[in-house]
Please model this.
Amino acid sequence: MNDNPPHPDTRAFLAEAGDLLGPRGLTTDSELVTPWLTDWRGRFTGKALAMASPSSTAEVAALVRLCARHGVPIVPQGGNSGMCGGATPDGSGHALLLSLRRLNALGPIDRDARQVTAGAGVILQTLHEALAGSGLRFPLTLGGKGSATVGGLISTNAGGTQVLRHGAMRAQVLGLEAVLADGSVFSALTPLKKDNRGFDLKQLLIGSEGTLGIVTAATLRLVPDIAERVVAWAGVRSIHAARALLVHCQAMLGDALEGFEVMPRHSLDAVLGHTPNTRPPLPEPHAWNVLIEAVADAASVATLHERVEATLGAAHGAGLFDDAVIAANEHQAEAFWLLRDEVAPAERAQGPAMQHDISVPVERMADFIAEAVPAMEARWPGTRAVAFGHLGDGNVHFHVLAPAGVDGKAWSEGDGKAISGEIYEMVTAWHGSISAEHGIGQIKREEFGRLGDPVALAMLRQVKAALDPAGLLNPGKLLP
Model:
């Protein structure tokens, strides 16, 4: 919170905002606000004028108009589970922290159209649970599903572990509602299969990290529920062997292949040492581990197990893996996935690290990992580089762990920052992206300006200037 006494104009703003939102909708109580002022990674801590929690789109719109009149910056926030500091205010204390968590209405499930309308504050896990038994599902999940909100997922164009088959959040949004910088409401919740009335404005807002508009609701795409899934774990000798196994599984399983995740031995060991009641799926350790999920709907469920067994049998015959096991039941399948979902918190518990969410062309990812890991460790003695994640999407989380015993903050600001710069330069040289699914936020803003295409950056700035000329929406984020 801002420790300085409010300016008279600030007092007037807070009084008007309090009248608009009521005591439940606006607070300056530090005990209530402080927990939301530090990002999930603990890299950024800011201050806020107050925290607003509107309960409807109309209240958001009225509040934004009020902020525009008083010149108050706005930092939108969902579950505060972002990885790049994009929902954390700066240290000035001038901005209003805008929580969208009360916008948690979930509309009726339209089974015929396979869609549902959800407020920005709906938690991803809540959405999954609401669809249970409906015959439909929302085809996006990630480790932070218990806190990530629909609005945050849209604002960062989140990915997750099902992108291989279904695409990122951008592909799941059929319609969108958002409040713009002047308080007007962009309302396009009703989806159309074909609509050629100019730019696709909802796609402009998706992935904009709250810098162009504040997402308040969305109509989401649903797909038929899974009638059966088969989850397997394989141990392979190298990342190139994992890539060869991916190509093999894609050829034999086609659209049934929904997940293909890779983890080096270090990441698995970190989870086993950090997360209670976990155990290794295979009796012997392997240099790399692969988690495979194949799914079937009601029409193809009868042959799924047979197809997966045939796929793995052929892969073993071709020497694509050393050992593998198929989950015997749903409990074991969830246990396999827990090992993957716990990699980030397990490595976080090991100490400071520079964490990078990167992508390169899918067909080159194995080559990139094989080159980048030893290069970083050789260039920075005492560090350990690990890459894990969505090999089939060309997106991995590339972490460089600090040497033992260093001061975490000093290392992050010194060697850590230099390491990130080198990794991003390497990714750019490989025609990749420094942000595959987590956004730019604060943490990558400087590097985005340094390495981004000048023409693309100029276009982004022009769009920002047109839609938010006063620069009040999430200042200091995304755009360098």
Notes: Residues 1-8 have pLDDT under 50 and may be disordered. Residues 351-435 form a domain with the Alpha-Beta Plaits fold (CATH 3.30.70.2740).
